[in-house]
Write a structure and sequence with these properties.
This protein is of the alpha/beta class and about 300 residues long. The chain contains eleven helices and nine strands.
Length: about 300
């Protein structure tokens, strides 16, 4: 039995096979409509989510399975003080696979150690968000035809952004990847990412404050929102939330084949005028997220690809 807690849980070869399966699902969706008949997915969401939770539910329903679970800690026995360990041991009696989001780092690992069913980490605090990373990889590969030899700009909240941390961890395994880290000083990428991931893997990167100057050299721009829920101080959030706003004027500085990604939800860091630019890929990203989660569910449940 395998879990998906971290993008590094799967080798590069396994990731490539999973993305190929997701691509096959995209192009042959009706063939996969019953591969998970009789299987149940439990969605254990201890903090709010729209896209990730509904994407998991859509994925399982599209495979012919069913879904049960809760969408907030208040609507689960966690409100009564039940531990994650006890919850997952109970859920293991009801479902075949579980997707869990929790505000505390390491919670998915704890769940996996006590679970008798595969556990998918759907986000644990500011730590990891591996299925968003798989979605990002599929989006980049589908749009550019590759996952190597490119410059990726990461912009916004690089300190608390778990999607950013997961993507960096995943992309450093591919050849000739370069990062431009665009953030205010207060939201720079954490030192452990800088030292233990980027420098340790001899990855080219630079840290800048100015988005305009970075735009011309990027193949991918990955925007993130400044997350109010990660701040202890409301004044700091208000001061930093509008640091970077991508608009059409900035898009004119970019390459014609540069794509903009965003894990969503968006607040105001991407102007709605950018939505009409063919390089805006964040809503395509949402659709790719369903296909990649379908592929992951099949892989962890060891469901055979239809003939």
């Amino acid at each position: 039995m395998r879990h998906m807690l971290n993008p590094l849980d799967f080798s590069v070869e396994e990731i490539d096979r999973l993305l190929s399966l997701a691509s096959d699902i995209e192009h042959n969706l009706p063939q996969y409509a019953h591969v998970c008949d009789g299987k149940k997915l439990a969605t254990l969401f201890y903090e709010p989510s729209t896209r990730t939770r509904l994407s998991f539910e859509s994925a399982m329903l599209s495979l012919g399975g069913s879904v049960l679970g809760f969408s907030s800690a208040d609507s689960s026995s966690a409100a009564k003080g039940e531990s994650v360990s006890d919850t997952i041991r109970t859920i293991s009696c009801y479902a075949d696979i579980a997707a869990m989001r929790h505000p505390k780092e390491g919670s998915a690992l704890v769940a996996s150690q006590m679970s008798s069913i595969p556990v998918i980490n759907a986000g644990d605090g500011g730590h990891q968000h591996p299925t968003q990373t798989l979605t990002d990889l599929m989006t980049i590969r589908s749009l550019t035809g590759r996952l190597d030899h490119m410059t990726i700009g990461l912009c916004g909240d690089l300190k608390f952004g778990r999607t950013v941390h997961s993507l960096i961890n995943a992309m450093v395994r591919y050849p000739d990847i370069r990062f431009v880290l665009i953030a205010p000083d207060e939201l720079r990428v954490p030192s452990y990412i800088r030292e233990d991931v980027l420098k340790a893997n001899h990855i080219q990167f630079k840290e800048v404050n100015n988005l305009d100057e970075a735009m011309p050299e990027l193949d991918i721009l990955y925007m993130t929102r400044v997350q109010r829920e990660r701040f202890f101080n409301e004044e700091d959030y208000i001061r930093l939330k509008d640091c970077y706003i991508l608009d059409q004027k900035k898009m004119k500085l970019a390459k014609e084949n540069m794509y903009v990604l965003h894990p969503l939800p968006r607040v105001n860091e991407i102007s709605t005028e950018v939505d009409h630019d063919p390089r805006a890929a964040y809503f395509k990203q949402v659709q790719y997220g369903v296909y990649v989660r379908m592929a992951l569910i099949m892989t962890l449940l060891e469901v055979e690809k239809p003939c």
